[in-house]
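Q: Study each token:
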Amino acid sequence: MPSPRDRSSTPQPELLGRRAVLAAMGALPLLAAVLPSAAAAGAVVVDPAKRRQTIRGFGGMNHPAWAGDLTAAQRETAFGNGTGQLGFSMLRIHIDENPANWSAEVATAQRAAALGALVFASPWNPPAALVETFVRGSQTNAKRLRHDSYAAYAQHLDDFSAFMKSNGVDLYAVSIQNEPDYAQDWTWWTADEMVTFLRNNAASIGTRVIAPESFQYVKSMSDPILNDATALANLDILGAHLYGTSYANFPYPLFQQKGQGRELWMTEVYYPNSTDSADQWPGALGVAEHIHHAMVDAEFQAYVWWYIRRSYGPMREDGQISKRGAMMAHFSKFVRPGHARIDVTSSPQANVYTSAYTDGSSVVIVAVNTGTAAASQPFTLATTGSAASSWVSDGTRTLAAQSGPSLSNGTFTATLPAQSVTTFVITSAPSGGSDTRPPSTPGTPTATSVTATSAALSWPASTDDTGVTAYDVVRVSGGTETAAATSTTNQATVTGLATGTSYTFAVYARDAAGNRSARSGTVSVTTTAGPAGGCGVGYRVVGSWTGGFQGEIVISNTGAAALSGWSLAFTFTAGQTVTQIWGGTAAQSGGAVTVTPADYTRVIPAGGSVTVGFLANAGSTNPSPVSFTLDGGACTTA
């Protein structure tokens, strides 16, 4: 299955026997005129208050040793943001194992930084003196960092950072290793080795640290880091590559649960392959859909291509933007560092993909139509727009400026051409007439009650000239904000948390005109670890009939202390739905059921039990749940 990463005729050494050839994926969109009577598709509602991750940027790799350095003109095309330029805001560079070669990285990094780009670096190999060979399967000359050389390797990475700084480039971060799990041609690392290095040595590196940069976002490489508190404390950015990664594997629930205070970057990919011309259409259209899923499904804060200049890359060998490059530019030129992604309907109709972003004063919408027919798509903004612009790329146009769209009371309908991508930029003004003053910043919240699965928060109230109408509680993880709760008062309870886990929360205030305050200070809480002495659950079907049954759950406290205010969770797997319950209150989402106590079952004495009964609908089969958790801790089953 492996194929070359790049089989060009460049005389520098290339990586042969490299990637799996990836399947091509899609196509993209264009703009439209106002059709006040909305089209058939449901409107995409763009509410800047619904913020998700903060974007670091988009960019690519410069590797002079393997692909030759960018020329002065090509640096302007890559990192400038004028007409005919890519608007890249990130540059990835190589940490050579030999410090004598470091100067090759300076010129492009200097110009990229001068144009405002964030620069970070990745190594392929440690210095030769720190490496040993070993047998790995059929590979008899596999390389790894000697375990007694970890401190020297950390010094090597720190020395590179200091070298770049002495040349006017303040690196944002360095990686521990490029693709440690796909290292036939460079240095292998196991997940345990990565954890050990992070635990014991990464803190000595004087800049942010990236790991593990798995070639295919292999979670078994990064899960151990997230599950080791000491290693995680020395990680700043979880980096991943997306070679052959299916969209179904883009989300990362464990990172969302445990990656508090960390950033999430996609640090290398080419898509869909390294064999086709980057100007092939509609093949290039798949790049835009790929970026869409990376931003929306994976919630990456950065998207970084492999070689910037290549026949299959964003810049052709002649230094001009390719069609694949235009797909990136529909994001990189308009979604700038510091923009926050807005949570909108990601696929409002077949073959159409939408994402939205804001910097507080404008809204950027990127709409992709991969279908072979034009699509009419309405949009509704929760803020009114004072001006709007748009750009389209399709089979005949590349980043072509368009007129409009025209907005009517914050709405417009766009005709997205067949196999196209359109970027809309709307300069926004808060709705609600002349009220443009946001509420004052809420006070820093405090946690008044923390359980295994919830946290009760309160905060000093905001003030506003027309009155505060709501507060939005958000969970903060690195540059990402996730909606956690909404309240009309200055207190709220966040539920659905994982046991024994740290979370960080903050609060925004909103007024009737839609103005949103600055974010409050943050509060960190750690949920409790569940029932200390354990629990047991007995589940049985008391009786059944066509289409339904009666069930009973006996919850036993096998610990030495009483439980109060418990929460029991389990999952039905055959479509069963609870219709009535006594002894508790049930909440169900899909097959997942959560039961909280009634007043008379709230306390389970040490060594005691309570009983909950319920009625439920059932299909042709009615299997019992296979596992139960109480306050996030697993229970034994009888």
